[in-house]
Specification:
Radius of gyration: 20 Å
Largest sheet: 3 strands, mixed
Strand content: 5-15%
Helix content: 55-70%
Number of domains: 1
Distance between the termini: 20 Å
Bound molecules: zinc ion
Length: 126
């Protein structure tokens, strides 16, 4: 097992480069929640399994974009939390708080935290 793992690290994984679409071998995307979900979806739809990788030529750009997305996602999570807190505490401060505000507040926060996924890019860092 250990040997196979080492070989994979040297040669990379076969798959489709997320940037140029070439079928080759390269660095696999980190198996985050999004990648696992996409993989399960493909299995459910009976699509052939496809590994998301970054080929050698695209690796720097892929690493950069993956990092940019990670930062974007973090700041949008902060915006979502801020929106929720402002809505709840803002209305409480104005004396207009009702528990019913939690629902649109949570919905709005969920929408805000999903916004960065319009430009989703997997992470290639460790
Ligand atoms: Zn490529």
């Amino acid at each position: 097992m250990q040997k196979a793992k080492n070989r994979r690290e040297v040669e990379g994984e076969r798959g489709v480069c997320i940037l140029c679409g070439k079928e080759t071998s390269g660095a696999p995307a980190r198996q985050d929640f999004e990648i696992r979900t996409a993989r399960r979806l493909r299995q459910a739809l009976k699509l052939p399994e496809r590994h998301t990788i970054s080929c050698k030529g695209c690796f720097q750009e892929c690493a950069r974009r993956g990092e940019a997305f990670g930062k974007k996602r973090k700041s949008y999570l902060a915006y979502a939390a801020l929106f929720f807190l402002l809505l709840i505490f803002g209305s409480a401060g104005l004396g207009g708080f009702t528990p019913w505000l939690i629902l649109p507040g949570a919905l709005g926060a969920a929408i805000i935290s999903l916004l960065p996924y319009a430009s989703y890019f997997p992470s290639f860092g460790k």
